[in-house]
Amino acid sequence: MSIKLHIKKGDMVCVIAGDSKGQQGKVLKVEASKGVAYVEKVNIVKKATKPNAKNTQGGIVEQEAPVHISNLQLIDPKSGKPTRVGIKVTAEGKKVRIAKKSGEEIK
Fold it and tell me: 97 near 86, Cβ under 8 Å?
């Protein structure tokens, strides 16, 4: 069962809680079933890997770990600050996401 989320792949987000609090980045991947998102250069962990076709050397690799959706807030396209997300129905009957702070449409 997947739920409707306020964050999508490609969005600029800010971490509002946890060890990475205050960091900003682009969403690389969203797993709606788990309620987590992977954010570029946020929540970096070191992982030991065995040699394989992709990495013939093996060793320690740094990669992004998932961040829970509740700990992320979208960045307002107008002000560049974190904002809540609302949904507005346009004249054509299409639903669009808007930033609560500025009322700006989120692309």
Answer: yes
